Amino acid sequence: MPKIIHYRNKCIGCSICFEMQPALWRMSKKDGKATLVQSISKKDVYQLVIREEDVEFSMEVAKACPVKIIRL
Ligand code: SF4
Asked: Is this structure's pTM higher than 0.90?
């Protein structure tokens, strides 16, 4: 199962992920960082299982993250 992994504590809140893929990302009003919708966290590392058809575009989002904290 493909997964997105988000190292949220290093997020700089640029909102590129949210702008590219609003179905999966939200910007937190609390701390200004991106939140991976419906993800499961383990010590501030968030994981979300995604559909096979979402992999390619999610990789584009990961590439666009300026601090490279989105992995697949
Ligand atoms: S693109 Fe990266 S740094 Fe920018 S808000 Fe998303 S996770 Fe954070």
From this structure: yes
> What are the sequence ranges of the domains in the chain?
3-71
* Domain 3-71, second-level architecture: 2-Layer Sandwich (3.30)
Per-residue pLDDT tens digits for 30-50:
999 999 999 999 988 999 999
Q: How far apart are CA 33 and CA 29, in angstroms?
A: 8
What is the pairing mode between strands 45-49 and 70-71? unpaired
Which of the listed residues 14, 18, 46 should we mutate to test ligand 1's pocket, taking the one with most ligand atoms within 8 A of CB? 14
Q: Over the stretch 15-33, which tens digit does the pLDDT of each residue have?
A: 999 999 999 999 999 999 9
Atom of ligand 1 nearest to the CA of 16: 1
